[in-house]
Design a protein that fits this description.
Layout lengths: L1 E3 L3 H9 L3 H8 L3 H7 L13 E3 L5 H4 L7 H6 L12 E7 L6 H18 L4 E8 L8 E3 L6 E4 H11 L4 E8 L2 E3 L9 E4 L4 E5 L40 H18 L18 H6 L6 H11 L3 H13 L10 E3 L2 E3 L9 H14 L2
Parallel strand pairs: 3-4, 3-7, 6-8, 7-10
Antiparallel strand pairs: 1-2, 5-6, 9-10, 11-12
Helix pairs in contact: 1-10, 6-8, 6-11, 11-12
Length: about 350
């Protein structure tokens, strides 16, 4: 394992900048917020650890990129930011997210609530779910994994046409695997920063996707059936678990972060790190490092304390799943408490951050 470490001066400059205007802007922040953000360059800090590399296939090694500090983010002429009349994030579900209507509806509500807390200060709105056929996208069966896949680029065109007037961005979510072009095996998601649209799949986050027992395998499409969307009727969706919800929240907020202009983080362990595979994505934390947190705060204008409190409330509050008692699934009758066990460690981390800010 290799650790990526930067000097105190490098991290301080990446966070604050040496531009007098941006230094002045930083000095005007709340004292508690600065105390937390300054943890980025304290030698003995334990809230924000360094990036660790575990193999040559990890993102930083296989996809060399120039790092983006706060000054570069702030000065980017192509960066999109919410405006007074465009402060809504729209979520468009494509197909079902669960094996029953109620499970699918609750899952979308959980994701909506999480996004509202993470991008605190913006409104998150749900569009009516649509079947795959409504997008008129191309689709195929993957030669390697034998599962259905839909064309990410075609979905982006569909979403662009549906983007409401008050939208900062519109993102599609699906439990169907994606591919960007015929020569690619798959892609977790794809976005157009210029158009403010993105499409993200959670299909590979089910615990059995890579196992020999995966139930989503289908036979090759018969000739003449490559445009028959009936193949998506009753397609397989993984069981909703706490880990699946955590991975979905992580991917959704990471990719929307890109639409705000945040590039892949190379400073500290951070949600905005790139990931090449599921193991690396699982190592990536749910939180933003101080440098990326300052970027997002600059774009939205939230109070860090209020944002952290909203995230804790989302973990603790089950009101996102308002008392739907039972629904038949493949396993029988189930109730739908929000599965947040996988978030408990992060909740403890947020409480530590709040202690620093409110000290």
């Amino acid at each position: 394992m290799e650790t990526v470490r930067h000097s105190e001066h490098t991290l301080k400059t990446a966070l604050i900048s040496e531009n007098p205007r941006l230094v002045s802007q930083y000095e005007k922040l709340d004292a508690g917020e600065k105390r937390l953000l300054n943890e980025a360059f304290k030698p003995d800090h334990d809230l924000f650890g360094p990036i660790t590399l575990h193999s040559q296939s990890d993102w930083i090694i296989s996809h060399p990129e120039a790092p983006q500090d706060f000054e570069q983010f702030f000065s980017d002429p192509y960066r999109k930011a919410p405006s007074p009349d465009k402060r809504s994030i729209y979520i468009q579900c494509i197909g079902s997210l669960g094996n029953t209507r109620i499970i699918s509806e609750e899952y979308i509500k959980w994701l909506k609530g999480y996004c509202e807390a993470f991008f605190y200060g913006l409104t998150v709105k749900l569009l009516e779910p649509v079947p795959v056929s409504a997008t008129r996208c191309s689709f195929r069966v993957n030669d390697n994994t034998q599962n259905l896949q839909i064309h990410a680029g075609h979905i982006l065109k569909f979403l662009k046409k549906k983007k409401p007037e008050d939208a900062f961005c519109i993102v599609g979510i699906t439990m169907i695997d994606l591919y960007p072009r015929d020569s690619w095996n798959f892609v977790f998601g794809q976005a157009s920063l210029t158009d403010g649209v993105g499409i993200f799949s959670f299909a590979r986050y089910g615990r059995d996707f890579y196992s020999s027992r995966y139930e989503g395998r289908v036979s090759k499409l018969q000739k003449g059936f490559s445009s028959d969307y009936a193949v998506f009727e009753n397609y397989y969706t993984p069981q909703v678990t706490s880990v699946l919800l955590l991975r979905s929240c992580k991917t959704l907020t990471h990719e929307i972060g890109h639409i705000f202009g945040l590039r892949h983080c190379q400073w500290l362990a951070c949600l905005m790190q790139g990931s090449n595979h599921l193991e690396e994505a699982d190592r990536r934390p749910l939180n933003l490092c101080p440098i990326c947190l300052r970027k997002l705060q600059c774009a939205i204008g939230f109070n860090i304390i209020e944002r952290y409190k909203a995230l804790v409330r989302w973990i603790e509050d089950e009101s996102d799943s308002p008392g739907v008692s039972t629904e038949r699934s493949r396993e029988g009758a189930v109730d739908l408490p929000k599965p947040v066990d996988a978030f408990k460690e992060w909740k403890e981390w947020i409480i530590k951050c709040l202690a620093v800010v409110q000290k």
